[in-house]
Specification:
The protein is mostly helical and 89 residues long. Helices cover 75% and strands 0% of the residues.
Length: 89
């Protein structure tokens, strides 16, 4: 689920317009989509399209993405920023 969320929400970001580390960081920042997941799963349960257990699993993955992805992204961005500041040997 997290891989799908990352790919769908952050896929358009990684088009080669920025460096590799910046693109990864930006993709992780863009993939935290908890509000959208909550709305979609609530609608899905109300329409009997998905079970409450499935909705709970999806929201849990969304919570995980909101807490973990930005931390990873910040670390990647800082690494990329440090490489830009280092003189070329």
């Amino acid at each position: 689920m997290l891989e799908i969320l990352l790919g769908v929400l952050a896929g358009p970001v990684v088009l080669g317009w920025v460096g590799r580390h910046e693109a990864r960081a930006l993709a992780l920042f863009a993939s935290a989509g908890l509000p959208l997941i909550v709305v979609l799963t609530t609608t899905g349960v109300e329409q009997h399209a998905i079970t409450a257990a499935t909705a709970a699993a999806m929201v849990t993955a969304g919570v995980f993405s909101v807490t973990v992805y930005p931390l990873i992204a910040l670390r990647l961005y800082r690494t990329a920023d440090q490489k830009c500041e280092d003189p070329v040997a």
